[in-house]
Amino acid sequence: MPKDGGIGASTKRREDVRFLTGTGRYTDDINLPGQAYVHFVRSDVAHGRIRSIDPSTAEGMPGVLKVFTSKDFEAAGGIPCGWQITSRDGSVMQEPKHPILAEGVVRHVGDPIAAIVAKSREQARDAAEALEIDIEELPAVMNMREALKDGAPQVHDSLDSNLCFDWGFVEENREAVDTAIREAAHVTTLELVNNRLIANPMEPRVAIGAYDMAADSHTLYTTSQNPHVIRLLMGAFVLNIPEHKLRVVAPDVGGGFGSKIYHYAEEAFCTYAAKVLRRPVKWTSSRSEAFMSDAHGRDHVTKIELALDADHNFTALRTETHANMGAYLSTFAPAVPTWLHGTLMAGNYRTPLVYVNVKAVFTNTVPVDAYRGAGRPEATFQLERVVDKAARELGIDPVELRRKNFITEFPYATPVAVEYDTGDYHATLDKVLEISDWAGFDARLEKSRARGKLRGIGLAHYIEACGIAPSNLVGQLGARAGLFESATVRVNATGGITVMTGSHSHGQGHATTFAQVVADMIGIDASQVEISHGDTANTPMGMGTYGSRSIAVGGSAMVKATEKIIAKARKIAAHMLEASADDIELKDGAFTVAGTDKSLNWGDVTLAAYVPHNYPLDEIEPGLEETAFYDPANFTFPSGAYVCEVEVDPETGKVEVQGFAAADDFGNVINPMIVEGQVQGGLAQGIGQALLEACAYDDDGQLLSASYMDYAMPRAYDFPMFKVDSSCRTPCTHNPLGVKGCGEAGAIGSPPAVVNAVIDALHRAGHEIPHIDMPMTPNRVWSAIHGGAGPDKDGETMEERSVGA
Amino acid sequence: MYDFEFMKPSSLDEAVAALAEEDAQLLAGGQTLLPTMKQRLAMPSKLISLKDIPDFSYVKAEGDTLTIGGGTTHRQVSEEAESAFPGLASLAGRIGDPAVRNRGTIGGSLANNDPAACYPAAVLATGATVITNRREIPADEYFQGMFTTALDEGEIITAVRFPIPEASRYEKFAQPASRFPMVACFVAKMNGGVRVAVTGASEEGVFRWSEAEEALTATFSADALEGLAHPANGMISDIHGSGEYRAHLIGVMTKRAVLHLT
Ligand SMILES: Cc1cc2nc3c(=O)[nH]c(=O)nc-3n(C[C@H](O)[C@H](O)[C@H](O)COP(=O)(O)OP(=O)(O)OC[C@H]3O[C@@H](n4cnc5c(N)ncnc54)[C@H](O)[C@@H]3O)c2cc1C
């Protein structure tokens, strides 16, 4: 019997009532009295020197309050980067200043040059057209390998080169890996691109700054996944505002996918301008602006080599990746290709030796940051593609090759510095083979052939490190912040509960799942529990939501705080029942003296806490409110097995996903329906990356995929019904709920499954094509089959492959 | 958007008079014009809505012709042309999405003449006639290249008159992002022979593929197209498809249209 409440129940998402009836409260729904509007004037060239800005005409336009340029921000700091990477030679990464408004040089299309604040949005825009800016265009560098050559245009004159860092991991393994590859019975090599993506959350970014002169305090309303992080970064590093004078509110947020982690210049601008102008300043991004100013994702070019012995055991793995940083470093950018990527290169396999080299490169493109999976999809993609290719080269079953090399004993210390606590990779593999009807493929193949279509099936495994992260560990790895999480559980006099969490919900359904956990622990109905998040004024300092960390880290903090509540309530109950606290049992919301029928309801005890007439005031304080901070002991390691089945139209190259099955091990599951929804969304994004989505630049740095006319978002009809299963469960051993996190899995495991399926379809039809880059557009697949030209900018050599080139 | 005036005339004459003003522009479904204005790429001083003009929105079949009012929405065509001219109804039912089809009009589409628009293929393949407030323009003269038509300043498309083909089929291969045609072919089996019009592919906009027309007029079967390949020069090449690929798709889409009809 499925439960109808508490942990494990597929309770309906309570937040959807608001969202589906149009009563959500998003940042753009907030309008403050007297607010002014800012329009950012952005660069339309990829690289250029600002010769002059003449604001005089613009300043005189109707409604204009002020034209801001970098001169107005001389006292402010640059937008900070949250992570510092150390190169192989021991030097720290090159870190250019990222000004709020361009200081003399523009470095990507969309880089803000000036900001015009006016009484209306249209007036600001009108004035922007009258702003006279003289820019000398400079040569732009788009391609990472070109950027590293001598004489390449320099994105930042202040740096030695366009190389941000050159990271080796594990450096001590380097020689052993080289030797093992040299001496291997077989080596499979693959060169591939992980395509640059634009996150495209449904809600574009918005920021409103407000200043209270009497209190000398600032408020920023913003579309963020982590309001406390914004408060810390913006207050301490950019604007020099102490945290008690700065409140950051991220109300309902319509999707983030990582692109709303970053502390953006527009946030600092609005906060600052509100004080200068003594009135609230609002910015609402247009969709066009979002394409060229939201942090992009991925953009890696990789060569991977897998060594096998004569018995097909993996003996070593070597990768070399060029990771595009864009023109500046965003909050997480340096961590993505390094610690969030290199540490996952062992995958689900016992490969004893792994060496990962990553060269991070500046180019004249929009900065990248974390995007759903952040580093882990890039690791999984290379690994699962090269394993599939190895199986094909060796003529063995890709299922068997994986099984043979699976890690089976836990805990397992990988050669890339992490320890998997639990997992059962055979279980998820068995499950996915079952639900995808892998065995029945041949019959479906015949049917496709009869229709003139090619058909293929592809498998991929993944492992991810979630629940980031142990603060002491990430501190050693270069993180400039802690990665704990927090919760305050406030029990009201009549028993209802408000939980203030540092996690942020922007689609994840925390209001529902978090309430299920607290209600279950106490034994009351979930309707008694309300979840509050997103406002630094009333939530304890938390690090926000990304990296599938909310239930594993935020949920654990909430459990710890609730445990404190229960311990105290038990003492109060013991006093009231004249028994020892040790003898008090809490079950179904009632405190009972063990072995007796003496009992009190939850509400009786909570009332006593606030009406302490009969109360042990000499022993415990009145009230019932507890806060806990939780810092995890380790990452969590969700894993899973995905199967994709495709049909390819050989005449047009169009790929149609015919079936997709996902078997995930998320440890314990709080709400299976919400988990399934998270996986489905992730699959849509992952399949979108594999087949449709591509951020494309031309050689001059113009963004070609700058609107939905050219950036292909997946639509519902691009997919079949997914089969999603989370019944394989090896609970996490080091957090109280035994949970692992589920937000990113779908986007991590699906791209290689799709590519493996397409390659399989082509091979079955006699087209021995080793690889096709994502997105596998009809033109690319057709070209692979027929040897014709790819779409514009295709067909270049590995040397030339990188974003836009 | 820039500021503009808005008017909704209740007669064609009034609209024609208003259009004489400098920078005045007609507004039909707004599905092309409004996004352009939001981007500030168009700045009409006055918008003249065609919504209230009487007898501007209809689908009328008479004998072997089908006449469609200039302000008829794609949705209306997809429903009301179904029995008389199913090939056209099917084309209209695949333009954009329901929101676009409920507002966008045949007149707007033809006036705009986007090189990837759907209607131009049907109009050219059937040799239809574009009727304006001033004259009648045969399809072969109407389309004059990307976003360029025979329309003069101040001219309003009031109707389109299609000769109804014996059989017709529109095969559309969608560009993955916009879902406009990357390449689409309209094959019309007319009284005097077969006509094939191609949209989405060429830098010159919609065009007729005369070799395929000749081959299909001789024998109306997919086999007749065997060995015919459209050359790649002059074809659009962009991030979605090379000129060579588009040229190839012309052959595939034409063949599929014929297969559908045979
Ligand atoms: C998301 C989306 C998807 C789309 N997909 C497709 C697709 O797959 N295939 C396709 O063909 N189209 C597609 N379109 C375009 C759509 O069909 C438009 O409706 C059409 O191109 C313009 O028609 P309209 O009535 O909206 O014209 P408007 O936008 O109102 O006007 C367009 C132009 O025509 C002029 N005009 C309008 N009516 C007349 C008239 N009667 N006489 C003279 N000039 C006139 C206007 O002044 C303006 O210059 C899509 C549009 C959108 C937004």
What does this entry look like structurally?
The complex is a heterodimer of chains A (805) and B (262). With 805 residues, chain A is α+β, with helices and mostly antiparallel strands. Chain A folds into four domains: 16-23 and 484-630, 2-Layer Sandwich (Aldehyde Oxidoreductase, domain 4), CATH 3.30.365.10; 43-139, Aldehyde Oxidoreductase, domain 3 (Alpha-Beta Complex), CATH 3.90.1170; 205-284, Aldehyde Oxidoreductase, domain 4 (2-Layer Sandwich); 374-380 and 397-466 and 635-800, Aldehyde oxidase/xanthine dehydrogenase, molybdopterin binding domain (Aldehyde Oxidoreductase, domain 4), CATH 3.30.365. Chain A is 27% helix and 22% strand. Chain A has 19 helices and 30 strands. A seven-stranded mixed β-sheet of chain A has the order 3-5-1-13-10-11-12, with helices on both faces. Chain A has a five-stranded mixed β-sheet with strand order 7-17-16-15-8, sandwiched between helices. A four-stranded mixed β-sheet of chain A has the order 20-28-29-30, with helices on both faces. In chain A, strand 29 (655-665), helix 17 and strand 30 (722-725) form a beta-alpha-beta unit. In chain A, helix 15 crosses helix 16 (602-610). Chain A starts with 14 loop residues before the first helix and ends in a 19-residue tail after the last helix. With 262 residues, chain B is of the alpha+beta class. In chain B, a hairpin with a 7-residue loop joins strand 11 (193-199) and strand 12 (207-208). Chain B has helices at residues 12-19, 33-38, 74-80, 86-92, 98-103, 106-112, 119-126, 139-142, 210-218, 243-261, and strands spanning 5-7, 24-27, 46-49, 59-62, 65-69, 129-132, 136-138, 157-163, 167-174, 181-190, 193-199, 207-208. In chain B, 48% of the residues are buried. In chain B, helix 3 runs antiparallel to helix 4. Chain B is built from ten helices and twelve strands. Chain B folds into three domains: 5-49, Uridine Diphospho-n-acetylenolpyruvylglucosamine Reductase, domain 2; 59-163, Uridine Diphospho-n-acetylenolpyruvylglucosamine Reductase, domain 3 (2-Layer Sandwich); 167-261, Enolase-like, domain 1 (2-Layer Sandwich). The A-B interface holds A 122, 125-126, 288, 651-652, 654, 692, 694, 696, 704-705, 708-713, 777-779, 782-783, 786, 788-794 and B 1-3, 39-40, 173, 176-178, 180, 237-245, 248-249, 252. Flavin-adenine dinucleotide (FAD) binds next to strand 2, helix 5 and helix 6 of chain B.
